[in-house]
Amino acid sequence: MPDTCTHFDHLQDQKLFDYIDHLVLAVPDLKIAMDEMHQRLGIQPVMGGRHPVWGTWNALLAVGEATYLELIAPDPDNHGTDFHRPEIFSATEAPRMIGWFAKCSQLESARAVLDSEGIQIGGIKPGSRVLPDGRKLQWQLTDPEVMVFDGIFPMLIDWADSPHPASSAPVGCRLLELHLEHPEGGAVTRLLAAIGISIEVQTGSAPCISAVIETPMGTLQLP
Questions:
Q1: What are the structural domains of the chain?
Q2: What is the pLDDT of residues 6-33, one digit of tens each?
Q3: What is the DSSP string of 32-81?
């Protein structure tokens, strides 16, 4: 997947935040990435927690009231062998935005709609991580190991009664645009619309996810 997209559409409106839960920026080293994001954005991401089942840990910063940017990397303190890291949470030598999560309070209903469209997203999975203060966040999400349209179609997530991570993440940045591109852009757009997400996917030569974020340092394109 290319690191950046070549063009953007007009700025999205407030509905962007109705759909986007968070953007996933997979990085090889979390602490280095946190420092780099601080330099680029002018905001220091805060440590989120660890995901033992995936062998990862993360850091967050808010880009909306209930939307955030997640930096995720291999957890150097997880020395076990029983975890499995999905591709969406994996980076090689450079940061990459390979996926995103959409808000969905009716996961089973959405899965049924996608199944009727011939799209298999796997089972609904539980997720959790322990916060630095010892509290535990819990959520449900569609299987992160099943990438639909190369990750351009989002994973779906429901935080239920857990506090949304954006509410306690550092503020000062705001998502202005999410650009999605895929060789089958029209098909992805129609699939999103089938579950009530009005975001257009452009048709391009290769899958690509990129975002424009307003920061104290100016407007920035990620990754």
A1: 20-167 (3.10.180.10)
A2: 333 433 456 788 899 999 998 989 999 9
A3: HHHHHHHHHHSS--EEEEEETTTTEEEEEEEEETTEEEEEEEE-TT---S
